[in-house]
TrEMBL record:
Protein name per Swiss-Prot or TrEMBL: DUF221-domain-containing protein
Record-level GO cellular component terms: plasma membrane
Domain called CSC1/OSCA1-like cytosolic: residue spans: 229-391
Natural source organism: Pseudovirgaria hyperparasitica
10TM putative phosphate transporter extracellular tail domain boundaries: 763-853
Length: 868
């Protein structure tokens, strides 16, 4: 069942749009305008069709399109208002509710993802405001021979003096982007620190627990653990490999599920037989004899289709009882002796500050050893539900070996993907190639609308389709060695970022430009450098259409989400039969994979930055596409998605640092293009900017990376007291009142309205508005600084215990029926020691399984979540 909020695998049927756009397609030799029209018209029509269908069917499928407005597992205070069945009622909360509603009622990562989209939209919009008024006139009057939209690009400029404009604009715009990234990183540091130190989060068990992966054997435990792991150790959980027990627990659960399914099938068969007899006799309800009922019991063969026959239910009951006993025996034999094959230790400390200090330092050992042989890896803030238990017990050497193998696999995957990606991208310039290669001459005879779709729509559509499967492959590989789902998702983000940059950007850009100069390389290699300088900017045409296709087609497709609708209906009708299966499907809300989402849209802004000076039009088109996606994901996070994985802002931090790739590529491209034009002055300016960007990157990472990983000493020392602003640049600015007074006095002195000054100050003074104290006030206003969390002794005892050691056999859940047969089966199961019930589920008149959807917390399958 689909559980991740994913990028679209297909943009939808566009044949209707194609027929309606044939009269407005390609009418000139330039591919620029034709490609945009060919991508825009069908994408727009497809988007309208998707939205119309969505408005028509939304009221009938609230479970797919609005579960956050009513489903019982979401508390009343966290539900999104707007559960009306009116066709456009869903627009009202999207328009009225701010992103802070997501922070208060969903998750920190969900809020930060929306902020990430707004940040890159802001970067693109400001970029258009900076570049368009200057570079459009310079390029358009550049005395080149380009036509249509190509005249607005760098390739239409001939003359060295004009290139100074591009160099100056690059300094201004790239400098602005670097300041924005630094500002966001500082803001995020303040927010995360305030969020971690809030009363509620600081009291969570995970906040004061450190995971030591593969600690050395001489680290003492039990009574003397304080001498090695710290004086404030409260308790610890030793984790050992349990491969056989895991296997037996899995077999036990599978057998119980099979028994549950077999007994349900028997229930339906008997009730169906009874209904047929009643209908044939025409005399209302008819009972069945015990003999008839017994004859309908399912039969199993000893060797599937051969061998002796036996009662399937009796056999499964006996098998389930034996496997339950086997699990209990294995648990009795399991030893938690830390001296035997210890692989990991969870250590709870008295306070969050103590846990943070332990996380930052190495434990002391009675046997002196080099630092690299002490604790090799530590994690803090790990939730029990995030642990990948089969990986957490891997020795560090095995984990590193698997990670190396994973990196090799990903490199091979990226290289392999270059073949289809390069072929697809080359289609974007196939009309040029047809003029130079004789055997492709037939392409020129194609009708203009078909050629326009082939050049403008097909390449980005195919690129998006084949790339959509990559994150699932990367996640599967990462979960083979990463200890938690969070670290696995962060690894996916890194890998998928590299894939996006290399495949969707570099390979595509070079391939779409390569077709233009390959014939020239063969016929006249001496002109290749100048030809490259002229043709490289034209590869931006691909991304203009790519942004249009993604923004219109993919964003609206995500809202309609027909794939999830079809999948839900299919599983409900044909796959999920038992009350437990239907309950699980109904209550499992759609999640979102941050490692998959950030790289795709980070690549949007990276491409826009790389082409911002070469082809400024890309900035505007990228901004429009991102705005559509922003509203799409606001809808998803308000109505549909329940984030299951919390990186606590780490994905956003990583995305901000990766964003600099766009600046580096843009600067290197300008250095190369200026060099080919022999423009010495502009080349020197961009070279200085390039090395300045490197220095900026090094300095920012040096000072901000430690704050992004752990808390500073002064903040830990002030826990529970009134903290000073972490990022304050001058003495005296310590509270919100002083800050606002300063801003107001600034506005008065400059005769600028306060409503104008405040947003500007918030942006240009992150050392004040990103301070820990301001962020603490912000979170308090959003209800994020509530009461402390308390736990029972049993909850603490088993918090970080492998589920294989403590999980109980599932209660066999059957639906009630009018014959009372479910009661008989329950009695049979109870005699074999198998707990069973038929509460909250029943067979309707058509023998379909139903359960009480209005009281999910009262059903046997519900498990109370514990806020660790």
């Amino acid at each position: 069942m689909h559980k991740q909020c994913s990028t679209p695998r297909w943009t939808g049927t566009f044949q209707i749009a194609f027929l309606l756009s044939t009269r407005t397609a390609v009418m000139t030799k330039s591919a620029s305008l034709a490609a945009i029209i060919a991508a825009f018209v069908p994408s727009l029509i497809t988007a309208i069709i998707f939205l119309v269908i969505f408005c028509l069917i939304r009221r009938y499928h609230k479970r797919i399109y609005a579960p956050r407005t009513y489903i019982d597992l979401i508390s009343e205070k966290d539900r999104t208002p707007g559960s009306s069945t009116a066709r456009i009622e869903w627009l009202k909360p999207i328009w009225q509710l701010g992103d802070k509603f997501v922070l208060e009622h969903s998750s920190l990562d969900a809020y930060l993802y929306l902020r990430f989209l707004k940040t890159i939209i802001f970067i693109c919009v400001i970029g258009a405001c900076i570049t368009w008024p200057i570079l459009f006139p310079v390029n358009a009057t550049g005395k080149g021979n380009a036509s249509q939209l190509d005249k607005l690009g760098f390739g239409n400029v001939h003359g060295k003096k004009r290139l100074y404009a591009h160099a100056v604009v690059a300094w201004v715009y790239f400098g602005f982007v670097m300041f924005t990234i630094a500002r966001e990183r500082m803001w995020l540091i303040g927010l995360r620190q305030a969020w971690h130190l809030s009363r509620t989060n600081a009291s969570r068990l995970s906040s004061r627990t450190v995971l030591y992966l593969d600690p050395p054997k001489d680290v003492l435990v039990d009574g003397e653990s304080q001498s090695t792991l710290g004086k404030e150790v409260m308790r610890q959980w030793v984790v050992k490999p349990t491969p056989k027990l895991d296997e037996h627990v899995g077999a036990r659960n599978a057998t119980l599920a099979q028994l549950e399914s077999t007994e349900l099938c028997y229930l339906k068969t008997v009730n169906k037989k009874r209904a047929k007899i009643s209908k044939r006799n025409g005399s209302g309800v008819v009972g069945l004899t015990d003999q008839t009922i017994s004859a309908l019991r399912p039969i199993r063969k000893q060797y599937y289709v051969l061998g002796t026959e036996s009662d399937a239910i009796d056999h499964l009951q006996a098998e389930a009882t034996a496997k339950v006993q086997k699990v209990d025996e294995d648990r009795d034999l399991h030893s938690t002796d830390a001296a035997e094959a210890r692989s990991a230790i969870f250590v709870e400390y008295a306070t969050q500050s103590a846990a943070q200090r332990a996380y930052r330092s190495n434990p002391k050992s009675k046997i002196p050893m080099p630092a690299n042989l002490a604790i090799k890896s530590k994690l803090i803030g790990v939730l029990p539900k995030e642990i990948i238990w089969t990986n957490i017990t891997l020795p560090q050497s095995v984990r590193l070996s698997k990670k190396s193998a994973g990196n090799v696999f990903v490199i091979a995957l990226i290289i392999f993907w270059s073949i289809p990606t390069a072929f697809i991208a080359s289609i974007s310039n196939v009309n040029y190639l047809a003029e130079k290669v004789q055997w492709l001459g037939w392409i020129k005879s194609l009708p203009d609308p078909i050629l326009g779709l082939m050049v403008g729509l097909l390449p980005p559509l195919a690129t998006s389709f084949i790339a959509s499967y990559v994150p699932d492959i990367l996640r599967y590989v990462a979960k083979m060695f990463e200890p938690t789902t969070v670290t696995a998702e962060l690894q996916v983000q890194t890998w998928y970022y590299l894939f996006q940059i290399i495949q969707v950007f570099f390979v595509t850009a070079l391939s779409s430009s390569a077709t233009a100069f390959v014939p020239q390389l063969i016929n006249n290699p001496g002109n290749v450098p100048m030809l490259l300088a002229d043709k490289l900017p034209s590869s931006s045409n691909f991304y203009l259409t790519y942004f249009i296709l993604q923004g219109l087609g993919s964003a609206t497709k995500n809202i309609l989400n027909y794939s999830d609708l079809f999948q839900y209906v299919f599983w409900d009708w044909f796959i999920n039969k038992t009350p437990r299966d239907k309950y699980t499907q109904y209550t499992t809300m759609k999640g979102i994979g941050w490692g998959k989402m950030y790289p795709k849209f980070n690549n949007f802004v990276i491409i826009a930055l790389a082409y911002s000076i070469i082809s400024p039009l890309v900035l505007g088109i990228a901004a429009i596409g991102l705005i559509l996606f922003y509203f799409c994901y606001r809808h998803q996070l308000l109505y549909v998605v329940q984030p299951k994985l919390e990186t606590k802002g780490k994905c956003y931090t990583r995305a901000l640092t990766q964003m600099l790739t766009g600046i580096y590529v843009g600067e290197l491209a300008l250095i190369g293009l200026f060099g080919l034009r022999k423009a010495t002055g502009p080349s020197i300016m961009i070279a200085v900017l390039f090395f300045g960007t490197i220095a900026y990157n090094v300095v920012m990472n040096r000072y901000l990376s430690p704050l992004e990983d752990h808390f500073p000493d002064d903040l830990l020392a002030a826990e529970g007291e009134e903290e000073e602003p972490l990022l304050t640049a001058e003495e005296g600015v310590i509270d919100g009142a002083d800050e606002h007074s300063r801003i107001q006095s600034l506005g008065n002195s400059m005769h600028i309205p306060k409503r104008v000054v405040d947003p500007v100050a918030r942006f240009f003074e992150p050392h004040i508005y990103a301070s820990h104290k301001v962020m603490k006030t912000f979170l308090h206003n959003q209800g994020e600084d509530g009461d402390a969390i308390e736990y029972t002794e049993d909850e603490l005892k088993n918090a970080y215990t492998n589920p294989s050691l403590i999980s109980k056999p599932a209660t066999i859940w059957l639906p009630q029926d009018d014959m009372g047969l479910s009661k008989r089966l329950i009695e049979e199961n109870e005699k074999k020691g198998l707990k069973s019930t038929d509460e909250g589920a029943w067979l309707d008149e058509k023998r379909h399984v139903k359960f009480d959807e209005d009281n999910l917390r009262q059903l046997p399958a519900w498990k109370k979540p514990i806020p660790f």
